[in-house]
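Quick illustration for those who missed Monday's session on complexes.
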Amino acid sequence: MHIRVINPNTTAAMTETIAVAARRVASPGTRIVATQPDSGPVSIESHFDEAIAAVGVLEEVRAGERERADGYVIACFGDPGLLAARELTRAPVVGIAEAAFHLATLVATKFSVVTTLGRTIGIAEHLLQAYGFAGHCRRVRAAEIPVLDLEHDPNAAFNRIVDEARRAKAEDGIGAIVLGCGGMADLSDALSDAVGLPVVEGVTAAVKLVESLVTLRLATSKFGDLDFPRPKAFTGRFAHLGA
Ligand code: 2AL
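Prediction with 2AL bound:
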């Protein structure tokens, strides 16, 4: 099985962190191909960053189709471009936020999210509403770490995440923590040990969900709104995305 794990930001070091975490949980027969767009934001911390990054995600899905990928993971917690990506392929496409929310509800009745910057809280809350998980999530919390600090100063970042997760455990009435950034892909075991709660991390959750969907032969539905986009010309710098 060939799973293309797309880091929607352009920071190669973060792609590597994501790749290592994905390979750690992948089944022996699964090949993880981890990629990032050529162009776009180095980190995704706003609606603007997400909108630009989504185009790169879609280009990476097109590239994956040429390589006959069996499934895709969108490894940013805003799940940028998720539904558009599903339109481009029959293969399953799973975002790390939706994957983590789904699995968290299987191990706890309530969870809190610990994400990076406070300004991304609204993005996660919007997804919780859109996906129908708002009733399971007690609170989206921020450790106030810029995304790239996860790469540049990992020990300080981890300590802030531990502090916020401990506050969540003490104050939120939860049974599990969801980690709210692809760059946190390597932190779930250490955080779980430090806090004493199940910690659901989206990259690893999404890899196992894609493996399950492929094994169960559950392809993305081409009946209805996830059908391939109608062929048409695109102009200017997006000409390569047209038919
Ligand atoms: C993210 C993420 O997962 N990757 C990135 O660049 N930004 N999301 C977040 N909330 O920090």
